[in-house]
Amino acid sequence: MQSQDVAQRPASGSGPGPRADRVVDVEQAEAALVEHYPRLVRLAYLVLPSGLGRGRRVLTAHALAQRALPRGRSAVPVIPSQSADRDGDPGYAFVRRRVVRSALEAGLPLMRVARPKRAQLPPLLPQVWGLRLFPRSGGADELALDQRLAALSGPGRAAYVLRGLERLPDGAVREVLAGCGVEDADAALAEADAVGADHALLESPEFDPCSLQARPTDLMRRRRHAKAALAAAAALAVCGALIALPGGGWGADGAAAPSYARNPAAEAALDPGRLVKVSPVAWKTSSRTDFSVWPARGELTGDTALLRRALAVWARPGKRVRVSATTGTPSGGPAGPPQLLYAGAVDRARVVILYDGLRIARYAEPKDGTAGAALDFARVDGAAGAEASAMVLARTDGNVRYLTAPWVTGVAERDLSKPGAGEMDLTLAQGVTSPMSSPATRSGACTTWNVLRVTDARGSHLLSDLGELVPARLTTGRPGAAKDVTGAEALRTWAPFACSLGTVRGLGVRSVNAWRYASQPLPDGSGTGSWVCTRAETWRGDGTRAQAQFAVPGGLFGAVAAQAGDVPACGPRDPHVLAGVLWKSEGGSWYLLAAGDKDTESIRATGGVKGSGDGHLLALPAKQGAQAGLAGTLEGGGAMSALK
Q1: E strand or H helix at 163, and its extent?
Q2: How far apart are CA 243 and CA 239, in angstroms?
């Protein structure tokens, strides 16, 4: 099943320079390792010396590939941007370099005076007992190539494999070898040249440590070793019992339960019979309008087997379950019995949605089995009213279905980028909407941005799918006094900047506000430009994103003039903003246009453009490509700096 709450983040507008660095987080490296695991293991197997023996080479190659990730979850490795990778994936280039480095270290001889490296020791995992594993035998050509590779040094084998298996040019090979600590990469390439160009043989089953044959080990030796191990275990048990006697050894664990004791709270959380099911009319008399008063809906709320599977996967997801969580959302099991919000068949899947007071958990499995199940998490703490009006039920073929709150009386679809286009009504059956177009997974140029309009007793609200379980609420107005996007003026404010919502997909966004903080007459008299600040707030509090955007009359889309993350500007704590942009008139003249909010008393430009002016607007002649710094003064003498 496809994960429902994580969308692809848009690529940045420009790549790094020729000597810039790329930052790779642990999740990106892990995804590359899982996707390209067979190739990475084959790479390690080919670089390892043949003197290890085929069986140990297989296990060592798997161990080196599995240890390619950094140990700390917060580690942020940096790799050179010139390192070639598969399909331009920097995560793959990172783990490939670690695999090659470890394989080269594993081939070094052990020295008495030097501390052995981890790769030089036999792998702790994986281990296979009672079997000898080795790749399938190839033909005479593969045997000859293996003999020629065995005669090379470790760097020489690495150069040959990187060139032949990874299809890297010599420059990229030198860079990878240098990053692995090889001092003379040219000598390694010269060794590789002497082997020949039988690169196609590297893809043969002879060198595939993931497709293996099995044979038994020495059976008589195993029996002797088993008897010795049994005697040692008995002796260890006797010693442990003596140490743990009263008056010595380990002390008591206080109030902690005995080891491996069954936890009643954990058992209750996994019991489908204890799921919380709210009455369908509870919301009508409750003082709260949040997910805690949503009733359980769907035709499968009585399917105990389905609910049991959903709870079990939540508590301990298997290796084949696709688990995703929005940024800042914990993915552990529930502390107690969660609340059931939905259980039913949607499109081609069975879906269960649960709520534990902090998170929404969505479990989905195919209708014809459990293979390919998905588990998605999203934070919703503090959600109320419009923020708890809808959640994503399913995404299929570019469309999205929502499950709406019981107090929602009507739903419709509209294009946020076209304020005059009107709305298209959606059907609403048992809280489930008919499918509508979703911009969450759309790629390519943005020309439309469809949003959901929900109506309840308090009015209408616009919600946008940003690739997460809960759509983001859209508002407009000055920070601290923002309102829902209703009326023609609010829709016209959002229209040029609708596509900018794509920059905050998958970031755990709770709401996005668009504030038109200034209108500026253009110097050539061609009309009035609009300055709008869009600010995305997240469920976790940090990770906010503020963008100052500028739109000219008649323009379909606005331009981002400045942006910043984790700043209070343009928000309730600091409802002020200042930004500038270089603008070219129809006559070909360039100007620096700058604007602050109405509380700005004066603006000063320095650097490539110098000048100042009273008030919250500034327009100065400039040259193409000029770089200017902006600073402002607020009424009362306070200083303010521009978004960058």
Answers
A1: helix 154-164
A2: 6
